[in-house]
Records
---
Amino acid sequence: MKPIGSTLAYLRKNLNMSQRAFKNIKQSTIGNIEVNNTVPRVNTFLDIISELHVSLDEFMFILNGYAYDERTTLFKDVRAMRHSLYAKENVELKHRIEQYVENNPRDMFIQDLKVILDSYIEISESDTYEIDSPKSFAIYDRIEEQKIWTYEQIYVMSKLFYIFPEKRALEIVQRIDKEFEKYNSYENIQGTRIAFLLNAGGYRISKRLYATALPLVEKARDLSYAADNLVTMSFANAEIAKVKHAHGEIEEAQILIDNAIAILSLSKKQQLADDIDHSWRNFITELEAAPVN
């Protein structure tokens, strides 16, 4: 990673600007910053990159050698997971997170991501949300008491709420949804919001709270359609199928499932298609074993 001052000098020279060309900053200040004699104050720094016509995000990208830093890359890769937990790339991602945590033990957020992946694996292997995860409860206790949640904290809570006891989980869902509203226009928020809606809806379906589950998964479907995301749209339709089947609309439910599996299979996402098929078969088995009154 280059020093901040050197990167600012690199961008200024690329624009053929002199150090005197900045409107609100003295040439001596720019000079000291560029040779790394001083670190600019936040407002000064923001003024400089504004006149250099780069955003903060792009500046950090350039500063890191035209690449995202390791922490940002890990978070992006976790958000971009589109395959089974056991897919090669996700096993490698888990290993990268473990290495990062070992080298950066004070980074609570990446530690939280590791707990999320560990919980997902345990849920997948046991095929139930009812798992014992003391680390997840510790995360909840740490974040819940805060009056304001950052986006990273909202993300973490949106991925862990369903392992808590039912009453507590439903309360957390309401808080998460409220916190999400504050970030409605935040960059790349829709993917995270869709995933949350799918998780919240799926959780309610597992508890047979079909009436409150349906609006969530339908919203996930609609947002997925607007974003042209066939993967999350297929998963949303699979959850809608479960609600319809529980309500006696068996033929329509089967059509939704068959279409979801076919779309993913044709998109060469067979692992995800198999995940939907497995989840569907388990749902039917459980429903037939203990029919809704």
---
Amino acid sequence: MTSIICSVRGCHNNWKKRRASLQQLCFEHGKTRAECCGATFNLYPPPSTDEARRMWLKALNLKKPPKKPNICSFNFVDGRPSVQHPYPEKWLGYVPPAKKARRMLVRLQETPSTSFASHETDAKTDEMTDGMPHRDASTQWEYLFMEHHSYAADPLHCPHLHDQATQCPEQHQLSLDAFQSLTDELTAGCSISQLHPKDKLLMTLMKLRLNLLQDDIAERFRVSQSVVSRVISQWLDLMEEKMRCYVPWLPRETIQATMPQCFKEHYPSTTCIIDCSETPLQKAHNLDSRGESYSHYYGQNTISSSS
């Protein structure tokens, strides 16, 4: 009988403690509890039916319940299983989730006045949505970024995007004449396919200068993301090959004559300083590659690219 214990988590009542409580003195009657009030608690076995036993075990919330989960009277609301509270509900060793009351739905009666007002509101909404220049069929949201880029406001069959997209703020402005000259030199011998060569050049410059996402560029130029990736890869190689002559390399004598004193003392063989920008990378699976690409300054994995 000593093996009968309470199965509730954190409860240590067992049959041995129950038998010892019968020998305790009752202060109310002056006798032992076996002669008057009885034991301080009782142990109750699980119900016999399958459904009631399942609810019994659900209340215990144990990962590995015993074969015969007995529960003491301290864990019942009425001190024992009753009709109103047949399962344990008190001091179960965990916080049971709160039961949310279901919301009652009440159908409102539609009156003629409210019906007329709703139809008038719908008509006003339709008028407002008809005036929106950009909207999606599924979300009816406006593309806010198009308000700042007039070249994306018209469909693809309108004048080329490069006609207005080169008008940037003053700090990185590129005039149409300079853009036209650069385009003529780079696009010599290039065939016009889905995109005009000027649009391809503009797409590449936007990626280099603003570091926009390829999905964003694809949305602006009305093409797929794969087309943007392929165009940027091809034009980077083309620009590197044809614009190499624009990088000035001074003679070593000129560099030595204009070199700062600190460089003459510590770095006398310096010929140029390459400015690199950090681009975030996805964490590599290889731990060595992850450690080599981690930047303590930015707190993430990056790759250095010259600009």
